[in-house]
Structures are given as C-alpha cells and as structure tokens.
Amino acid sequence: MADELGHVRQMWHLLEPLHAVFYYAPEVFEEAAALGYATDERWPSYFAWRAAPLGAADADRVTAVFHSFSPAMVARYVPAGWDVAEPRAVLAARTRAVDRAYRALFGDRVEGAEFAEAAALVRRAAEAADVTGRPLAGANAALPWPEAPHLVLWQAATVLREHRGDGHIAALVAEGLDPVESLVSFAAVGAAPPEVFASRGWSAAEWDAGRARLVGRGLVAADGSATEAGRALRARVERRTDEAASVPWAAFGAEERERLVELLGPLWVEAIGSGLLPAETTLGIGKV
Prior knowledge:
Number of helices: 15
Mean pLDDT: 95
Oligomer: single chain
Low-confidence stretches: none
Structural class: mainly alpha
Helix content: 55-70%
Distance between the termini: 18 Å
Strand content: under 5%
Radius of gyration: 19 Å
Order of helices and strands: HHHHHHHHHHHHHHH
C-alpha cells in the first residue's frame, strides 16, 4: 500500500503545476481582462475561473467547496464576478486561456505524439475518478471534453486535482479541523510559513483564535509549532487524502505509470522553470 500511495502522491506532484500554471500565466490574465475582470490582482479572475463549473454559485457555496478561504474574502468576489461574465462565458474563455498559455509554455510540443499520449493517459485516470460527494471534481468532470490533446491534459489534470482537493477537505473535516484551523495546523508542521497562508484572507485575530483552539486541543504549541499529536493528526490527514485520491490510478500497471512519469517529467520541468509559479504555496508540496 505504501508504494501505491507513493505513486499517487508522485502523480499529484507532477500534475499540480500543470494545472496551477493557468492561474499565473499572462495569457490567462489577458483573457480575464477581455471578459472585464480586474487584473491588478489575481483573485477576481481566480474565483471566476475556478468556480465557473459550479454555475452561478453564491458566496456560501464557494466558501464551502473552496474551504480554505475566509468567507469575507470570498464575498468580495462572489457573486459579483457573475455580473462581469456569466459562468458559460467564463468557461469558454478558460478554454481559450488554456490553449494560449500552454502554447506559449510548451510550443510545438502540444501538437506532438507524446503530448497526445500523456493527455490520453491522464484523461483515463480522470474518467476513472469517482466524483460522488466531490463537488468541484464532479462539476469539472461534467464538462464536455475538448478535442485538442493539450486542452484534454489540462482538463484531466484539473479534474484530478479537484478530486484530490475534495477528498482532502473531507479528511480535514473528519479530524475536526475548521478552515482556519486546517491552515494553522498545516503551517505548524512546516508546510509553508504563516505569511504564505495570508493569501486566504483570514485576519490576524481569526488566525490567532484558530491557533488558540488548536493549543487547547494539544495539537499546537504556544510558539505555533505542531506537537507530536498535531503532527500525527496531519499525517493521518495526508494519508487519508492519498487513499481517497488513489482510485483513479488503480487500473494503471507499473509500465503505464512509469511511462506517464516519463511523459509528464519534461512538462513539469517547463512549468516549474517558467518562473510563473510561486516558490512556496499553501499546498506544501515536497514538504509534507
């Protein structure tokens, strides 16, 4: 089982940058501006891009399914974003943005046989994902598949990352962690400095109150670091997350897994080396 879950985590590490680069690419901001979104910061378009598969969801719905963002932060952008562009228009622009961003990043390789092979394999995994009880994964899985392999790859990676994210939220809830406590406990195990998590919009008072609750449960020390019990809790969360994310990959044999790693590796290098992605994120990839 350990080897199986290690592969699940490896695939997450490889695919996450291929999904996330979308939120930072200049071509994507150009498409957002064309829709009418402000682009002096990334959040107006971020909430629109990511929530559009849900339809014209209200702030409470988006807060619940995104989980880590402060309700006050979500309310600044939702539902106002749907007055700028309706979800259907956002999704159409999202496809154009992926096309432009991937062509800029990967060049002629998007037309190549290896890109098509990678896209087919990742799509197969995405289509094997059980999206029951997974709102963001289910909403993305319900979208029609594009024809171009590079668009298929991004959409499949998105279904899989939201599938993992939905499962991660379930694991956090099962351990009795509310949204801000989830972030505080993650910072406590060294996933990223607390300053990185400020992007989720929680006030200093909310963060301190969340930490105080975790101190009271014996999960975090007074200095903000995780106790032994806190580290054990986070280890359980990560294991449950990996287990919940394992189903899409269950039918892949060892040779197929190795081949997909071989195909995705150079694309991962391009995404990481593009300079578009931040050095540290709230996901803690490579640290937990």
